[in-house]
Design brief:
Elements lengths: L2 E6 L10 E6 L12 E6 L2 E7 L14 H11 L3 E10 L9 E10 L24 H13 L4 E10 L7 H9 L4 E3 L2 H10 L3 E10 L12 H28 L7
Parallel strand pairs: 1-4, 1-5, 5-9, 6-7, 7-8
Antiparallel strand pairs: 2-3, 3-4, 5-8, 6-9
Helix pairs in contact: 2-5
Length: 254
């Protein structure tokens, strides 16, 4: 049975998008998740929404308990995860407000717990295709149908945060062929893969990081303003794609 976890914020944790929402607290071996799970249904599909940075956005990027979050969704029975995240654009053609469906990541974090298999059991998880290809395809199809500007097959680099990049770092990431940058995709994506959950990210471009000389360097206020203006598009996208996931014969390998 398909159960879908939604990880994000910026309106995505609004119980109003669910039918018969209830709050569920889940205990995990890794501590407390960022938030309770807001559970309900969308078009007959079981949904669990988790606020990555807490319902009041009080958890800084390095303080997110990613292992507890993924474990909680797995414990609830989630087979798929739709994640939303704010990103900075490293490419001129990816404009603020655009959506991006990455297919690759580069991990530039340093201090995070990145695996469930750090004791006793040795597991080497394949990561050539970290984001579920079928979910990415469905998201792109829905975005096209809703006439939402989007970009496919891009590389996202995750930095530690909470600070933003220097100009030198921003240009370095561009030289690595990275397309967008954020502080949350890693280790979320690899932990989901370890738990054999189909995972895809919908990344919303909010700024041009600091490499673009014609634009103001990114600020937190800039990110929040863009997310507030455009979060309704992510909600519309998820509402459109969720029934398709229910009917889709998902045979991709996790």
């Amino acid at each position: 049975m398909v159960k879908i976890g939604i990880i994000g914020g910026s309106g995505l944790d609004d119980p109003g998008i669910l039918k018969d929402p209830v709050e569920k607290a889940v205990d995990t071996p890794y501590g407390t998740p960022s938030s309770t799970l807001t559970c309900g249904k969308i078009e007959g599909v079981d949904i669990a929404i988790l606020a990555r940075h807490g319902k009041d956005h009080s958890i800084h990027p390095g303080g997110v308990n990613f292992r507890a979050n993924i474990w909680a969704l797995k414990e609830y029975g989630c087979t798929h995860i739709l994640a939303a995240t704010a990103v900075g654009s490293l490419r001129r053609e990816i404009e603020p407000g655009d959506l991006v469906f990455p297919d690759q990541f580069i991990d530039h974090t340093r201090r995070r717990e990145t695996t469930f298999f750090d004791e006793n059991t040795v597991v080497h998880t394949p990561m050539a295709e970290p984001f579920c290809p079928n979910l990415r395809e469905l998201l792109a199809e829905s975005a096209a149908g809703l006439k939402i500007k989007h970009h496919r097959n891009k590389t996202i680099v995750t930095i530690e945060g909470p600070r933003f990049s220097t100009k030198a770092e921003s240009h370095m990431f561009r030289s690595w062929n990275c397309d967008v940058i954020n502080m949350s995709t890693v280790p979320e994506v690899n932990l989901a893969r370890e738990q054999k959950i189909h995972y895809a990210t919908t990344a919303m471009s909010t700024d041009y990081d600091c490499w673009h000389e014609d634009e103001e360097p990114v600020t937190w206020e800039m990110i929040v303003a863009t997310m507030q203006r455009n979060s309704d598009r992510v909600i519309r996208l998820f509402m459109d794609v969720i029934p398709k996931i229910k009917e889709y014969d998902d045979v991709c390998s996790t």
